[in-house]
Amino acid sequence: MSHLIHLTIKFLFLFISHIHSCQWSSTQCGCAQTSASTHHRIVGGTQAKPHSWPWIVSVRQYGSHICGGVLITDRHVLTAAHCFPSYHPGNRKHYSFAMGHHRIQEKYFVAKAKRIVLHASYNTNGKSINDIALIELDQIVDFNNSRFGFICLPLKHVSEGEAYPPIGKETWVVGWGTTRYEGQVSQVLMQVTVPITTNKGCKEVITTPAKQVCAGYDKGGKDSCQGDSGGPLVLDIGQGVFELIGLVSFGIGCAKYMKPGIYTRVSSYIDWINTIIKPTKPDSISNEIPMPHALLSSKFDYRKLSYFTEEKLGQATDRTEYDDNFEEMLARADRTKIWTERLTSHVETILQPNINERLEEFILTKLDQKSLNKPNIHEQLGHCMCEAGNDFGPSTQYGSALIKCGQFHQKLGIAHKEFIQSVATSFMQPLKSFLDGEMRSLTKERRTLEIKRLDLDAAKSKKKKAKITTSSAIVAMADSSDIELRHTQAEFDRQLEITRLMLDGLNNSHNHHLRCLNDLVESELQYHRQSVQILEDLRKQLGLTKSTMNSSIAPSTSRTMQTPRTATVKFDYDASDPNELSVLAKETVNIILDNNEKLSNDADWITIERPHTKERGRIPRAYLHIDNLSS
């Protein structure tokens, strides 16, 4: 049915558009005063005609372009969630949003973000599901200015039960991204046409077709690229009116053979968008806000829909309220979900700060290629040092030192890989399994509970209305409403108990997460200990070279050094801090003072050094008998 309605609307629109072509106005979505056309050599694309895409936005960090975006109202911008790695409200001020310009260096209109909302279920483990973010600007965009416009949003859930857009349909991608892989950002706005596809390369990478869409040529040559992330994939639905299909999410390289671009399918996020936009002022120029999807389901009859509307308008008087303890449990579940998602996201950022590397590792895993075989940054540095050392000559002092450093940095790389594997197994996998399993089931049960509550409240309202009159027909209706009320009450109580039991289970989940947190700390400790040991061994390996170099450069240094002041240890002392040194009675040690520093009689602690091992640390002054008082 939705498919038929959608086609009918499209047909009527196209019929009318034959009579009236796209005319730009402050209230017309998807229309530009300057029609889109092509001019010079995005990858394989052309230079856009200035101001022919009035809804395009440049997302900037510290003033530099990082992503694209698209205006959907006079104060809201859609873009990709991965454009804001490790985002928190404190760094919102670092981002700005420029629009109305053609050249990237222009600053025609720049707004800041009043708030940045990332999709709560966006994950950064390479899958890029729910890669969408909505920004509320701190200024209103003046759509009376022909440089500005807003894109038409697609009809809600048009992708369900049909291929929309049809396979092979030409779409447009617009942005200031690089014109070649790892190239420079384009100085002018670029555009390219790419067809919707479901080729082999798409199926190998895409994980959720309902939320993602592929576009690109099998032979490659044309594609979005770096810097285009978050930019719009749009469809001409007739007479120059454009509809937003997707947002640039990720891809394998740019414009490669059988490697299409992957886009977030916007039609699957209309409810999410509307939920965020609703709190804004009613006079906002925007796309129409549809009814919630749940109320359009066949499970809801007119009476329930009517009651839901009354409740939202504050006119319902029979709303079933949960007890305070249950409300607290619900709030605790929400906090658990939010913070678990944030924790896993931040730990992923520590393990691999580069989001492109995370995407590549995920894609290689999907293609059954082991990503761990790829050298990490420590191993790459080690390989570079070894090559440099061999080039300078292993027999030279500098070349030999470079080779040793390279070998030990490769060991650091191996230790880092082991650390990543340990954290992934002991921390990341359990928490992600919790989100994908227990938390998802809990969310489903909560939704069911809300439906049962609406059923119960609607039954209460029906019974209340039946009591007002006394006719025989109404009496029979009242009896029927009594039966319905008892039934819905029993269903609600049953679902409430199920949900309560699942909420109680969060205590066990928190205990499990605590163990996972301990494992994380243990893995970090082991990794840093191993790294310190590797570097200590490297320092010892370089010790002879260092001493030889010092002796050859400054042979008279030892003669000019002052004789160190010494002390005799009175009693055994066991160190209780890493900065302290354990010593034995009658042991002779050197007292360490800074240049021109004199030993203070008021000092409670003194730094000492063993003459032979050069170990240093602090001990209480009372444990020492100071020698060489005359020096």
From TrEMBL:
Xref: Gene3D superfamilies: Arfaptin homology (AH) domain/BAR domain, SH3 Domains, Trypsin-like serine proteases
SMART domains, sorted: BAR (SM00721), SH3 (SM00326), Tryp_SPc (SM00020)
Domain SH3: 562-629
Entry keyword Iron-sulfur: no
Entries under InterPro entries matching the protein: AH/BAR_dom_sf, BAR_dom, Peptidase_S1_PA, Peptidase_S1_PA_chymotrypsin, Peptidase_S1A, SH3-like_dom_sf, SH3_domain, Trypsin_dom
Key word Disulfide bond present: yes
GO cellular component: cytoplasm
Xref: PROSITE patterns: BAR, SH3, TRYPSIN_DOM, TRYPSIN_HIS, TRYPSIN_SER
Domain Peptidase S1, chain residue ranges per copy: 42-278
Family annotation (Pfam families): BAR (PF03114), Trypsin (PF00089)
Name of the protein in its database record: Uncharacterized protein
Species per Swiss-Prot/TrEMBL record: Rotaria sordida
Lineage summary: Eukaryota, Metazoa, Spiralia, Gnathifera, Rotifera
